[in-house]
Fold this protein.
Amino acid sequence: MGFDFSGSKALVTGGARGIGLEISKLLIARGAQLIVVGRNEDDLRRLQQQFPQAVTPYVCDLAQAEAVDRLIEFLRTAHLDLNVLINNAARQVEMDALAGNTAQNIADGRNEIALNLDALISLSLGLLPQFARQERALICNISTGLAIAPKAASPVYCATKAGVRNFSRAIRYQCEDEAPQIQVSEAVMALVDTEMTTGRGTGKITPQQAALEVVNGLAKGQHEIWVGKAKLLRFLNLLAPPIAAKILR
């Protein structure tokens, strides 16, 4: 059974730029009200101006645990009808773990873990009891093929996305047993042409294409949505894991 976004209220992290922006637009087109979280107030304001009746902006640095806690409290008190969580915000840092700046590598790594994994887990755990009281609810965590086979240049990013993948599965198992009205989905991204991937790789797909595949997959009730070339990775990893690992490395 799929998910109907009409009449839903959705929280989208990183929802005012890149893939998140395109997901936000598609959810609005399908009849959802949005709370859009991001660090850049200008980006959030532009989106709200474009969709004044549908968007509530919320400025927040999700890499700060205290800020995430305040966001959860705000949602649990002011938005009791919230029933959709799209965990999209993430950061990827390329680092030389051997010859790079050690202090900078540690700081960057901690920031990636806080944003990519800790905030995602905290938001999910903070909202799941509220979602269990809804007639229908949805959590979608944005992952990547690098969660399955990492690349050398971004060790912490790959580790966080592997954590996202396993967390998503475990929470899905719990919801299937205790709250089957909550759909828990993971979107496995291919390489998308965004600010984060500038100068990295070739054969990128557009944020619009990536977002459309995610939202269509969610509407169909898919638990795993393999986006773009990640569909090939899925099968290649089943048939020949060493080859998949070599390609992504």
About this structure: The chain has a mean pLDDT of 91. The two ends are 37 Å apart (CA to CA).
